[in-house]
């Protein structure tokens, strides 16, 4: 039996606490809160949850939380808004650089297209005279 919540197939053999995290927008903390609210033990396997508990779970998740496509759209619109108003964070997003103040001198080289190699790598053998 495939459990489907918010358009996502939940893995059967995982614990309920972990299985819910396969839904975009639900992490471990939120999944624990949801399971506690409904009264499902977090250690039960996803395929062992009864049908009426599954319906309660589905109703709770889909009515009270912004998930999956809607959440991704919301995040995309927030980034788009930052770019349009000319915010520094928006310009960092558009350049594909770190937004939250991380250093870029030593980390993040591959994103910037600045992949340095060490001196000895890639050298050809010296020709004989």
How would you describe what is shown here?
The chain has 129 residues and is mainly alpha-helical. It has 2 domains: 3-65, Helicase, Ruva Protein, domain 3, CATH 1.10.8; 67-100. Helices cover 45% and strands 5% of the residues. The protein has a two-stranded antiparallel sheet with strand order 1-2. Strand 1 (3-5) and strand 2 (8-10) form a beta hairpin. The radius of gyration is 23 Å and the shape is elongated. The protein starts with a strand and ends in a 17-residue tail after the last helix. The relative contact order is 0.10. The model has no long low-confidence stretch (mean pLDDT 86).
Helix content: 40-55%
Order of helices and strands: EEHHHHHH
Main sheet strand line-up: 1-2
What Rg is obtained from the alpha carbons, in whole angstroms? 23 Å
Question: Would you summarize the structure shown here?
Answer:
By secondary structure, this protein is mostly helical. Helix content is 45%, strand content 5%.
Summarize the SSE layout with pairings.
Blueprint: E1 3-5, E2 8-10, H1 16-19, H2 28-38, H3 51-64, H4 68-84, H5 88-95, H6 109-112
Antiparallel strand pairs: 1-2
Helix pairs in contact: 4-5
């Amino acid at each position: 039996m495939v459990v489907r919540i918010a358009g996502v197939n939940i893995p059967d053999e995982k614990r309920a606490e972990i299985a819910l995290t396969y839904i975009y927008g639900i992490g471990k903390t939120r999944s624990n809160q949801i399971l506690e609210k409904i009264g499902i033990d977090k250690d039960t396997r996803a395929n062992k949850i009864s049908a009426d508990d599954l319906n309660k779970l589905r109703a709770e998740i889909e009515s009270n939380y912004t998930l999956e496509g809607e959440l991704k759209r919301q995040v995309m619109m927030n980034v788009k808004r930052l770019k349009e108003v000319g915010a520094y964070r928006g310009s960092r997003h558009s350049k594909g650089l770190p937004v939250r103040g991380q250093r870029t001198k030593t980390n993040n080289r591959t994103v910037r297209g600045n992949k340095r190699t060490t001196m000895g790598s890639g050298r050809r053998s010296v020709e004989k005279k």
